[in-house]
Design goal:
Chain B: Keywords: Cytoplasm, Nucleus, Proteasome. The complex is a heterodimer of chains A (269) and B (202). Chain A has 269 residues and is of the alpha+beta class. Chain A has 6 helices and 12 strands. In chain B, strand 5 and strand 6 form a beta hairpin. The chains are: A alpha+beta (269), B alpha+beta (202). Chains A and B meet through helix 5 and helix 6 of A and loops of B.
Chain lengths: 269, 202
């Protein structure tokens, strides 16, 4: 039994009516599913294991000049840090970015899949897909897999004809449009700094500093976030990586160590 | 439950000296509450105990130990030897065998003729004496690896400090639940040096 993968098929047939000669044409990928009694919930336990693993901090916000996207770079497996240099901002195409939170494999695969669908849309319609459309495509695909254990908490940020766009999409099938989002275990800390310092009319540098600061504070407080704070900017001509600062250095930049008086105690022997 | 607060403690033996180091983070699972939490306590000038594991049990156990040691000092009119102290801790922990303290002590001291002594225990009092180094806490596996690689016998105090600091910092950098700085005590026959390490604050 093959699962319904109509969400993964390309638009229409690119060749004429099937007449046997083209039976070798590549069909869309489909996933085999296991034979279980409880098809919809067989991965419940796997989900519970993966659930706390949204150990990360990502954030994005819209401001006057465009969209600012930032993330940390730590991957944790429970208490163990498996990597301090994970790329959590995924480049879908030259004018759209997606952030990764949750399962790394899930996010990477579905973002790449989204990139493919966006490019096909461009070729079929002779114009770029809007951020609204791209996020809707992703949300619909993820909704089909709802309850099966995918763990994806992503933000799609981009610049299209209507200006900057930012959507939050997750593996429960939710899709929200907004001006400011932060996702991951460090998001409460990032929200605190972000909400406090946010103004719509900031310059690119001010916005970058706000994003960097918010990620830094989240890495300080949250054990599952850390590594390098990368900041990307999405403007009318596409995205640009602004900075990737090691969080340890940021700490000592923001809070330099005050040399304290060293006391020496002499004790009678 | 040992991973509720997060901790990392290591003690190493040198030439007529020892060093004991800990991280400084106090957290509640993933959230960091404090970055100046003290895990290593002085019992007397030549005896230190570091307590890894649940922070509340570590503090209570420390208070009980200080009480017992002060009584001992009053009765015997001298300080406790590290070996005796280790047996005391072991007995106290085993008293609570069926409702234990959730902490792992690391004991380090200078015994007769200033011979360094280190040992660690599990949470119900099983002593593990070692000649080179002992580790405890959430980062203990990384610490074992780092110490094994960096340790050399008979190091002087300065070199011992460098070694133990590097081992601690590199191990806690692989652990989400410990770090945020380091606290190192190096104890020789004549002096005790306390140093605070600048570490990765993430």
């Amino acid at each position: 039994m093959k699962f319904d993968t109509s969400g993964l098929e390309s638009h229409g047939q690119l060749v004429g009516a099937s007449d046997g000669l083209f039976s070798g044409f590549p069909t869309a990928p489909s996933f085999e599913i296991p034979n279980t009694t409880d098809f919809d919930c067989f991965q419940k336990e796997a989900i519970q294991m993966v659930k706390p693993a949204k150990g990360t901090t990502t954030l994005a916000f819209i401001f006057k000049e465009g969209v600012m996207v930032a993330a940390d770079s730590r991957a944790s497996m429970g208490g163990y840090i498996s990597s301090q240099s994970v790329k959590k901002i995924i480049e879908i195409n030259p004018y759209m970015l997606g952030t990764m939170a949750g399962g790394a494999a899930d996010c990477q695969f579905w973002h790449r899949n989204l990139g493919i669908k966006c490019r096909l849309h461009e070729l079929a319609n002779k114009r770029r897909i809007s951020v609204t459309g791209a996020s809707k495509l992703l949300a619909n695909i993820l909704y089909n897999y709802r309850g099966m254990g995918l763990s994806v908490g992503t933000m799609i940020a981009g610049w299209d004809e209507t200006g900057p766009g930012l959507y939050y999409v997750d593996s429960e099938g939710g899709r929200l449009k907004g001006m400011r989002f932060s996702v991951g275990s460090g998001s409460p800390y990032a929200y605190g700094v972000l909400d406090n310092g946010y103004r719509y009319d900031m310059s690119v540098d001010e916005a970058a500093e706000l994003a960097r600061r918010a990620i830094y504070h989240a890495t300080f407080r949250d054990g599952a976030s850390g590594g390098v704070a990368s900041v990307y900017y999405v403007g009318p001509d596409g995205w640009k990586k602004l900075s990737g600062d090691d969080v340890a250095e940021l700490h000592y930049n923001y809070y330099p160590v005050q040399p304290s008086v060293v006391e020496q105690v002499m004790v009678e022997t | 439950i040992f991973e509720y607060n997060g901790s990392a403690i290591v003690a190493m033996v040198g030439k007529n000296c020892f060093a004991i180091a800990s991280d400084r983070r106090l957290g509640v699972q993933l959230q960091t509450i404090a970055t100046d939490f003290q895990r290593i306590y002085k019992i007397h000038d030549k005896l230190f105990i570091g307590l890894a594991g649940l922070a509340t049990d570590a503090q209570t156990l420390y208070q009980k130990l200080v009480f017992r040691h002060k009584l001992y000092q009053l009765r015997e009119e001298r300080d406790m030897k590290p070996q005796t102290f280790a047996s005391l801790v072991s007995a106290l922990l085993y008293e609570k065998r069926f409702g234990p303290f959730f902490c792992q002590p690391v004991i380090a001291g200078l015994g007769d003729e200033d011979k360094p002594f280190i040992c660690t225990m599990d949470s119900i009092g099983a002593k593990e004496l070692a000649k080179d180094f002992v580790v405890a806490g959430t980062a203990s596996e990384s610490l074992y690896g780092a110490c094994e690689a960096m340790f050399k016998p008979d190091m002087e105090a300065e070199e011992l400090f460098e070694t133990i600091s590097q081992a601690l910092l590199s191990s806690v950098d692989r652990d989400c639940l410990s770090g945020w700085g380091g606290h190192v005590y190096v104890v020789t026959a004549t002096e005790v040096t306390e140093r605070i390490l600048k570490g990765r604050m993430d």
